[in-house]
Write a sequence for this structure.
């Protein structure tokens, strides 16, 4: 893009997806996946899922997030601005979830039972950690693809869906029994339907927001990265899991464990790819619009 075209045409955002911005994409994904896995693990009382979820959120997601901030030993300053920054609020949510979650895990591993108030608080902050990335992006008013109330909801559903899928894989690999597997499969089935419906509504809503929103959706479905959208997100991430879910209704999950592992992998691959595309195809609306918006 020529300097003379800056903010006269719809302008792609680059800060959160190019260079160091890649770290923020990964941080959002692993924080939400880890918190979602812990959240589901708490509901089905599965300790391995809780432990793995905590590690994904705190060690991988949190570690990458600190690297993105640039000064690992000064990141704590971000927490001092919760009234004006969703990054600050998000770090607080994640820190509270990790601290309280570690207490809960320690109590359960010691053979005890976590107090109900502690469980409620942990799940509350886990849920806030899941939706944090969506609110951080939603706060950017100039990008119609992000500035919609549906984005935090979409990220919340995808985070819990991914967590339920990963918890199902953990349950199958640890052999905890078919009853838990069936319960988790029901979680995955319901959340898959919710995600597909919400993703379609999200696309349609942004498409009719304004011309910049329309261009962003066009870039998603037919732009430079259209193979990622149609082959990875739609085919592998949605169609394949939906097909397996339909088949499992008749055969039962105990007869298709290997396929379920592949399905969980495809779900997560489709989720992280969709998040990449939403970041990549976010366009700023022009500050000084030209007579007609040209395609980007």
């Amino acid at each position: 893009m020529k300097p003379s075209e800056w903010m006269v045409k719809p302008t792609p955002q680059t800060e959160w997806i190019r260079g160091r911005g890649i770290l923020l994409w990964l941080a959002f994904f692993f924080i939400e996946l880890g918190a979602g896995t812990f959240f589901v693990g708490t509901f089905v009382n599965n300790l391995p899922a809780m432990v793995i979820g905590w590690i994904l959120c705190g060690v991988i997601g949190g570690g990458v997030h600190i690297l993105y901030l640039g000064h690992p030993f000064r990141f704590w300053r971000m927490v001092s601005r919760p009234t004006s920054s969703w990054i600050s609020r998000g770090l607080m949510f994640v820190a509270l979830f990790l601290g309280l979650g570690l207490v809960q895990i320690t109590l359960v591993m010691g053979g005890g039972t976590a107090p109900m108030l502690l469980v409620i608080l942990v799940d509350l902050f886990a849920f806030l950690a899941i939706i944090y990335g969506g609110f951080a992006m939603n706060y950017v008013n100039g990008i119609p693809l992000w500035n919609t109330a549906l984005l935090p909801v979409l990220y919340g559903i995808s985070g819990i869906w991914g967590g339920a899928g990963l918890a199902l894989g953990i349950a199958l690999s640890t052999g905890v029994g078919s009853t838990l597997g069936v319960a988790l499969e029901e979680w995955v089935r319901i959340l898959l339907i919710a995600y597909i419906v919400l993703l379609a509504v999200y696309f349609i809503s942004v498409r009719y927001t304004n011309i910049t929103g329309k261009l962003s959706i066009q870039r998603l479905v037919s732009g430079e990265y259209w193979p990622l959208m149609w082959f990875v997100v739609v085919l592998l991430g949605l169609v394949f899991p939906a097909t397996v879910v339909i088949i499992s209704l008749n055969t039962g999950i105990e007869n298709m464990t290997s396929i379920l592992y592949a399905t969980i992998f495809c779900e997560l691959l489709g989720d992280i790819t969709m998040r990449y595309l939403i970041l990549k195809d976010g366009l700023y609306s022009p500050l000084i619009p030209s007579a007609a918006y040209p395609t980007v």
User: Anything to note?
Assistant: The longest strand covers residues 11-12.
